[in-house]
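Priority: low. Protein: Protoheme IX farnesyltransferase. Input follows.
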Amino acid sequence: MTDMTNELTLNRTGGASAGDFIELLKPRVMSLVVFTGLAGIVLAPGHIHPFLALVAVLCIAVGAGASGAINMWYDRDIDAVMARTIKRPIPSGRVEPSEALGFGVTLSVLSVVVMGLAVNWAAASLLALTIGFYVFVYTMWLKRRTPQNIVIGGAAGAFPPMIGWAAVTGSVDMPSILLFLLIFLWTPPHFWALALFRNGDYTRAGVPMMPVVAGEAATKRQMLAYTLILLPVAAAPFFVGIAGPAYLAVSAILGLMFVGHAVRVLRATDDKPAKKMFGFSILYLFLLFAVMMAERLILGGWA
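Result:
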C-alpha cells in the first residue's frame, strides 16, 4: 500500500486545478446532503427569509464538502489501493495532502461561523457536530476498526435535515428527529449494497466493512432487516404532521420496493441485484424528501 502511494505521489502532474479542489468536496455526496438539508428548511414550521435560507443551504453544502476533503486527506493511503478511489485528487498526485487538509479545515470553520452569525447558533452547533462526527468519529475512529462503521457513522449523513430545521426554528424537535432516523436507518442497506459489489476493494484496503468481516450472507440478512424497519419509520412523517397522504402512499410503495430489492439481493448469487439496490436506494431517499417538500410547498403543510 505504501509503495503504491509513493509511486502515485511521484507521478504528480503539476499544480492542482479548481476542478481538483471541487472533487475534494465529494460533490455527488454533497448533493444529497444539501437536498435533505433544504428539506429540513422547507418542512420546518415558522418563517425564514429566503436569503438566510440560501445562506443556510450553502453553509450545509460547504460543511459537507469540507468534511469530504478532510476524509480524503486522512484516507489517502487506502484510497490509493481501491479501484473506486484511486483516481481521487490526492492518490493520483494532483493535490498535496497538506493542501487538502488546509482546504477542508478552512471551509469547516468558515461554514460554521457564517451559519452562526447569519442564521443562528443552534444550526451552527449542529453543523459543527456533523463535521466533527464525520471526521473524528466515523473517518478516524470507526471506519478502520469496526464493521459497524456505517451504522454508527451514518449519523453524520443524517444530521442535515435537523440542521435545516434548526435554521428556521432554532431548536431540535420530534419531526426533525424522525427525519434524522429516516436517513440513519437508510444508510446501512445503502452502503452495504455498495460494499457487496466493491468487496474486493475493501478487502485490499483492510477496511472492515460488513461483507468483509461478517460475510455476504450475514450482510444481506441485515440489509433486509433494515429495509423492513424503514417501513414504519418512513411513514412516521405523516403521523407527526409534516407530510400528507400522498407522501404516505409513496413511502409505502417505495418502501415495499426497497424490501423487494433486499430480498433479491439476499437470494442472488452475483452482484447485479446489489448494484441495482444501491442505485434504487438513492432514488428512494430523494423521492421521499421530494414528495414531502412538494406537499408542503403546494398544499401548505398538514400540521
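The chain has a mean pLDDT of 92. The chain is about 80% helix and 0% strand.
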